[in-house]
Amino acid sequence: MASAVVNALSMAVGKAAGNSSVSSVTKIANALQSRTLMSALGAGAWLMAKPLGLLVLLANLYLFWVHLIRHNRVKAIKKKYGYTKDPRSYQDMTMDIAQEVEKNLAEWDMPWLFELGWLFNFLATATVPVLSAAIIKSGHFTNPDPMIAQQRQEDTVILMSSMMAHPLRSRSSSLVLARINEHHNYHGPLINSDTVLYLIWLFGWGPVQMLEKFGWRKLQPFERHAMWIFWRELALRLGCKYVPETLDEMISWKDAYIKQEARPHADNKVFADAMKDMFLYKVPVFARGFAFQCILALVDDDVATAVCWDGLKEDYHQTLRYWIFRLLRLRAFVHRHLTLPRRYPYVRTTYSKNELGLYNFEATTYSTSPFYVKATLRSRWGLGALINRIRGFAVPGPMYFSDGVAWESMGARRNNMVKQREAETKVVAQAKTLENAGYGFRAKVNFQPEPLVKGLSLGYGDRVNAYPAA
After folding, report:
1. Pairwise CA distance, residues 127 & 242, whole Å
2. Partner of 239 for a Cys bridge, out of 149, 319, 396, 445, CB 3.0 to 4.6 A?
3. CA pair distance 334, 332, nearest whole angstrom
4. pLDDT digits (tens, 9 = 90+) for 63-93
5. Max intra-chain CA distance, the chain
6. Under 8 Å between Cβ of 185 and 198
């Protein structure tokens, strides 16, 4: 096989560089096959005077190498577990395997698009007035005080990224989920379990939709299944009182929820504008209008309508969408055919435990202010910090909790220290429960008692903390 490939490449290079070079390239091929380095160098001495032939040979060898190994990681998973296109081959996939598959997509094969998928679906959370109203009433994410709003936004991005990145039932994962649950529990009368399930659908399936549309390869059936059962389990651990058993059931439920609950509302715009300001915070002022048009180009039209942004579209919106889509598909082509696989994984949450036993985080993709970033000479006075100072942005310091933060204290804080400590104690206690609980366990969260979408089946998971059976 290798001999045939090298001979074919030799002929191709000969045609590109001239017939007189065929014999020299063939000599190199034969030398490579016999693994005699000196012979290869001798045969290539004349060819070195013909740079075009050498470049064509190297380019073809590189493209062949890309073609040979580009799919190695997904192929290895399929071979390891015997997965095929037949659903029966992966229907009994374990949660550990599901997270392995999710990790390959999010950290190795297509990390940038994966993150873009859930972040853009973050905007779609503002399409439901009941959720937007709850966010506004909680007084943090949309607060006019930038210190309050930006800390809450940073907490949200860190917690969401960490929720996906840590192995389920690990200490870190359990603390993250318990922290989210405690926040939902505090605002329980404002929140319905069905709304949280819809958020989980958006965050879980947003990356799938983005990868299917703009990824350098289509997802395998077992990968779609892995994403579903991973997020189905997360829904239980986030206390959803009803979680569909199958993906088809989830899609039907989601369509019914959107039809019933998603519609334009002024509260949606307040919530969406807060997210827009977060995304565009560090974009130069002169470019923010165009950057916002790029966001509009990527957002589905029904989302733009629900958040009252459809009136902001300019005449060139459709043309801009066309060219952005073209660029993303060109990017997919380049990644598939011209780039080698990643050598190192993308790290979704970069943090370290400091001498105080707290965690310092690196700035996230869309950080506004440097919350929880350790104050060092470089972070305060390095080149990046100097640029931030010149542009009027903050650098790490005590007012941004540069000493670090514990998982249980991250997020919206209580009004006084006594209540804050009580909340942190509850987080630690529930984290211990989640860490020890088996799969299928449903956490207890003080959501509204009745579902928004009626006519539910029993669904997935334990009946404890579920809606009463119809």
Report:
1. 21
2. 445
3. 5
4. 999 999 999 999 999 999 999 999 999 999 9
5. 86
6. no
